[in-house]
Amino acid sequence: MNKPFQTVTQNIVWQCPWYAVRQDKLLLPDGSHGVYNTIMKGPAVWVVPVTPSGDIVLIHHYRYTVDDWCYELPAGGVKPGQRLEEAAREELREEVGGVAGHLVYLGQFYTANGICDEVGHFFLATDVVLGEPTPEPGEVMTIHRKPITEALDMARRGQITDAPSLMVLLLCEPHLRQLIP
Amino acid sequence: MNKPFQTVTQNIVWQCPWYAVRQDKLLLPDGSHGVYNTIMKGPAVWVVPVTPSGDIVLIHHYRYTVDDWCYELPAGGVKPGQRLEEAAREELREEVGGVAGHLVYLGQFYTANGICDEVGHFFLATDVVLGEPTPEPGEVMTIHRKPITEALDMARRGQITDAPSLMVLLLCEPHLRQLIP
């Protein structure tokens, strides 16, 4: 399908090391003029790590934006020039000290398409062996192993509140049920 | 659990009619100083509309941020002073011209807790009667009725790429399966 808006001008109006805001002036389909501000963030990856004994590895992460602790999957931005699989292995290693025996790409989604260009890609990591994580000073988190059925129950019961992590877990459910020992 | 970061200063560094960026200087747990930028957006609502004949009403929405057409649920921000249920009924009316016989609150989530304070609240709307939508000039969308099983299949097959819409549909699946005629 075609692009219904015509872009007239584009300017970066604010930026920080993690994202930029691009302001576009548009010609709308009804002939009027509009403005759209896009948070430019680039792609990111989410990983469902499953250990050889059938546990899902979750992070309990303090999120300053919402002043709350959230159960999440290992996730993070893809660096310029980095392949998606490399980014997935890097987040797994940094956030939970994990090394995956197998890593399978399962799909993509838009995190917040009303305001942000981020494309999320998700992976199932199996035969994950855990080691020492290396979080950054601003990443405050603890690591939790949960049996697959318990992690899925947490998702269904509202105990996982981070939307992309929750969505990825539910989408992976058919794969995960096959990994229950 | 306690708040591990101490806020030193807070300033709005950029804003537009839809959101603002607040920059906080922080004292991190290791004693070092950090900066956190939060996109301040306030709460939003997502609605799963089901007609008396058991169709889910989806929007096919052009999203300028990602230059793509996305199947989505009716959704939008909660205005200051507005109750969540009022916001849900308003989005239903504006985006698909819908009026719900019953509206049930089902839960909440964080849309993008790494960068944004948005709390998403989701509702199941049943006995939805469709009328004339009243989208804004920048909202380019078409409306699609899909039988419940088809909408859930679209979600599982990667045809719904908007993360919150997809997540809400999957979370509502047990309720939706009871509404299949």
Strands, helices and their partners?
Two copies of one chain form a homodimer.
Chain A: E1 6-15, E2 20-27, E3 33-40, E4 44-49, E5 55-63, E6 68-72, E7 75-77, H1 84-96, E8 98-110, E9 119-130, E10 141-147, H2 148-156, H3 163-177
Parallel strand pairs in A: 4-9
Antiparallel strand pairs in A: 1-2, 2-3, 4-7, 5-6, 5-10, 8-9
Helix pairs in contact in A: 2-3
Unreliable runs of chain A, pLDDT <50, ≥5 residues?
none
Mean pLDDT of chain A: 96
So, CATH architecture of the largest domain in chain A?
A: Alpha-Beta Complex
Q: What CATH first level of the largest domain in chain A would be assigned?
A: Alpha Beta
Number of strands of chain A: 10
Total domain units of chain A: 2
User: How many distinct helices of chain A?
Assistant: 3
Q: Provide the spatial order of strands within the biggest beta sheet of chain A.
A: 7-4-9-8
**CATH level-4 homologous superfamily of the largest domain in chain A:** Nucleoside Triphosphate Pyrophosphohydrolase
Helical content of chain A stands at: 10-25%
Biggest β-sheet description of chain A:
4 strands, mixed
Largest interface: A-B, 61 and 61 residues
Structural class by SSE content of chain A: alpha+beta
**Oligomeric organization of the protein chains:** homodimer
Please give the alpha-carbon distance between the first and last residues of chain A.
45 Å
Shape of chain A: elongated
Say what the CATH topology of the largest domain in chain A is.
Nucleoside Triphosphate Pyrophosphohydrolase
Q: How do the helices and strands follow one another from N- to C-terminus of chain A? A: EEEEEEEHEEEHH
* Structural Rg of chain A: 19 Å
- Please state roughly what percent of the residues of chain A sit in beta strands, choosing from under 5%, 5-15%, 15-25%, 25-35%, 35-45% or over 45%: 35-45%
